[in-house]
Design goal:
single chain, alpha+beta, Protein Transport Mog1p, Chain A, 7-stranded antiparallel β-sheet, 3-stranded antiparallel β-sheet, about 40% strand, disordered N terminus
C-alpha cells in the first residue's frame, strides 16, 4: 500500500512541478511562430491573420479567443497606460454597460511579459465567468478571452493558458 501511495505522490509532484504534461494536452504553435500553447486533445485550433480560435470538441463553440493585431513599438510605461485605458473602457462599455460584474482587475505576466487581467461575470439568466487578458509582444497587441459557466471547463482553459509561451525567434 505504501509503495502505491509513494508512486502516486511522486507522479503528482512531477506533474505540479511541470515535469509531465497531462495526457490530454497537445501543443499547437501559431502559424508565424509568435506563440505556442497546449490545448486539450479533442479541442480544435483554427487561425487567420489576426486571430486564433480554440473551440470545444464540437468544433463550433469557442473556448478561447486570441486576437493579435499589429502595433507600434511602445515603451513599458506606454504599454501600462494603454492597457489601463483599454481596460477602463472594457469595464465601462463591455462589463458595466451590460450589467456584468467585475470580479478582478490585476497585473500579471504571460511567459515573462507584462499583462493585465480582468475577471468578470455576465448578468443572469446565463451567468458566464469570463477572463480577459491583454498585453503587447513583438510589435503586436494581444487579447485573450475565455469563459464558461462550467467550473471544470474554466479550469481547463486556465490550464491551457498557463502553457502559453512566446516564440523565441
Amino acid at each position: 500500500m505504501k509503495s502505491k501511495l509513494s508512486v502516486i505522490l511522486t507522479f503528482g509532484l512531477l506533474f505540479l512541478a511541470g515535469g509531465l504534461k497531462p495526457v490530454f494536452a497537445l501543443e499547437h504553435t501559431q502559424k508565424d511562430g509568435l506563440f505556442s500553447m497546449d490545448i486539450p486533445e479533442a479541442w480544435h485550433w483554427a487561425e487567420d491573420q489576426q486571430e486564433v480560435i480554440i473551440a470545444y470538441p464540437d468544433g463550433k463553440t469557442v473556448a478561447i479567443d486570441i486576437q493579435l493585431v499589429p502595433s507600434k513599438k511602445l515603451s513599458p510605461s506606454d504599454i501600462k497606460n494603454t492597457l489601463k485605458e483599454a481596460n477602463d473602457k472594457m469595464i465601462k462599455e463591455g462589463i458595466e454597460a451590460h450589467n456584468g460584474t467585475l470580479i478582478g482587475n490585476k497585473e500579471i505576466t504571460i511567459d515573462g511579459v507584462y499583462a493585465t487581467q480582468l475577471d468578470f461575470k455576465t448578468s443572469p439568466p446565463n451567468v458566464i465567468y469570463v477572463t480577459y487578458i491583454s498585453f503587447f509582444n513583438k510589435d503586436r497587441a494581444f487579447t485573450v478571452t475565455y469563459g464558461s459557466a462550467d467550473e471544470k471547463m474554466r479550469s481547463m482553459m486556465d490550464d491551457a493558458l498557463a502553457t502559453f509561451k512566446f516564440g523565441r525567434s
